[in-house]
Here is the input.
Amino acid sequence: MNLLIFICSLYGTIYGLSKFFRKKKALYLKLVTCGVMSLMFSRLYQVIYLTTQGNLNSGFHIGLLGITGSFMFFFSANFGQMDGLVDDKTKAFRKTRIISLIAPLSVLIIYLLFFMKVHNTELRIVWGIVTFFIMQCAYYSFKHIIIYDVDFGIIKSLRKYNALVLAYAFLSMLEAVGLYIDIKPLYVASCVSIGIVAVTLLPVLKGGAQKWTI
Here is the structure.
């Protein structure tokens, strides 16, 4: 499953580098590409680690930094590059900000329901940290799906992309649940779905970004 995700994210990385790492391309697009690249390196490490050591279930490993990094890049793109364009922090968007809490709270509930059953303190602590970064990413992805759009349709054009990032957030949690609670069908389904997201994320983003100039 890690090999599958690595291959899919490798394709995504090559696609992003070829399409977005050019002059005059928005930093937003480059940050998202770095997120997919971070996912790729995390899975490459996990493939190598599994081949040599055979087990990822003991607690912290470097691959988790790559997974966390992918969410940090996606969060940075939405929070640093896009959120200020659509939310001026006034009362007009207070309802949207409150509703958007549904996404991170749902991620937190998954963690509390399942990871508290894991009899490994290190694993609970490590995934507690990873969950925190997933929650941040999920909040802004969901917010940019439901928030009222600005005049030029910038946010509207990115809704499909943000839906995929939000799906990636929940799928990462479900993958971990399937792995550590030993629910193999859930683990396999989550990994396959993450692979699909890794392949489609940047092409969907490109399609949305093309509408910025229309």
Observations:
- The two ends are 40 Å apart (CA to CA).
- The mean pLDDT is 89.
- Residues 14 and 137 are 23 Å apart (CA to CA).
- Helices lie at 2-20, 27-52, 62-86, 94-99, 102-114, 121-146, 159-180, 184-209.
